[in-house]
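Think of the structure tokens as a kind of shorthand, similar to the way a musician reads notation: each symbol stands for something richer, in this case the local conformation of the backbone. In the example below we present two proteins back to back. Begin with the first one, reading the sequence and then the tokens, and try to describe in your own words what changes along the chain.
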Amino acid sequence: MSRVGADERARLHEAASTLAGIRAATTLLNSPVAIGEERRSAMAAMVESELQRLERMVQRQQDAARPQVPGPRAGEMRPEVAEVIDLDAVVGSMVLAHEAKGTEVGWRPSRMLALGDSDQLTEALNVLLDNAAVHGSGPVRIEVRAAGPGDTSVEIAVTDEGPGVAPELRRRIFAWGVSRPGSSGQGIGLHAARDLMERQGGYLELLDANERTTFVLGIPMLGCAVEEADQHDTPARGGRRGVAA
């Protein structure tokens, strides 16, 4: 399959997942179930943010389908400028979207910033949460952390309580079309997520573990949005505050 064809299928895969999250959240917002005003406001903002991301996704696909205009000569290429990403905004939005779909997610805001493409990071994280919901069990835990002493990356680790990835599948898990035995998926998501991370100077890895499943997204780190949070803060459920991991 060509790169263009693979990108189109990956975007359709992501669009379907994004629409499912929007539909679930909208149903919840319109249901008679009592929702606190703060959570209702955060969920409504998430729906609007996801709709805007979906519009940008469609626009990029339309742009890609147009005849290509010859680019500048060698030496005239202007590098893309990475945006500053508020990781709490990205993770918080995905937590709300997946909680609306019925997934229990544990998360503690980090107040960390990264450099890259927020839409691509959101899409990659969405894939991991979808994957955990389908193949894992129990609550999903998200941890945002510095990659290590002296490292210039920040990591988002997504862990579920499932049986883990079979040894014979681990080294092929990111290949196009590879899925777990019995899965109804197309084997697109993880391949697309790794590609999206590598396009912005990041990475996606599966950690070695005998139990559970942990995927780690890595992206260039910028710093913290505000002063470090008090380590004794107690996170609240949902929204930007998340759930204690």
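Once you have a description of the first chain, move to the second and do the same.
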Amino acid sequence: MSRRAFHRASEADRRRDLIAATLDCIAESGLENATVREIAARAGVTQGLIRHYFVSKDQMLHAAYRDLMAGLIGGVMDSAEGVHPTARGRLRAFVVANLSAPVADAKRLSLWAAFISRVRVDPVFAQIHLESYTAFRSVLEDLVSDVLTESGRNADPVTCRELAIAINGLIDGLWLEGTLAGDLFADTPLSDIAIRSVEALLGGVTLDTNTSPPIRKT
């Protein structure tokens, strides 16, 4: 196990270091074996200093799970908000980002799997999970609505919500496939499969960014 050299840092930086050390320990040893002692050693601090930032190991685990989910969601949200000339281009970028590094990563999968077992038994974990899922699906609903509107299709809230739920389930499944056995899909990238599947769910709307958006009916 590598240990970080002690250095002076701001309170915010020190807290981030402790969360990063917590995630590293969980990825290597599992949730139960990530002890405060090991986390302190990896972060290059004393156990007493950890208590200055977190009153308990559970609070530190909650912060680590929130950080993990924010990292997973933040990257794909950034891709959707990037510079794309069409709504279909933004949705395509969002889907691809979910199935590409650094989101589709074995370490992130192992961390997600370690934490997800706590969601049903710990109300704080459950709340973090709900907040993360709600934020992710809200972005996806907006993307779907923009694509349907751009394509002259019905974009009522119920339709957009149902399509977002379906696309989210598709992404989740392919994300698991890709991070568990990515080598099996070298010939056909999962992102390509995802794009074709999302196009089918959207009723044949193409997500090809090189295609000009259709003229809407008046």
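Compare your description with these statements about the second chain. The first helix runs from residue 11 to 29.
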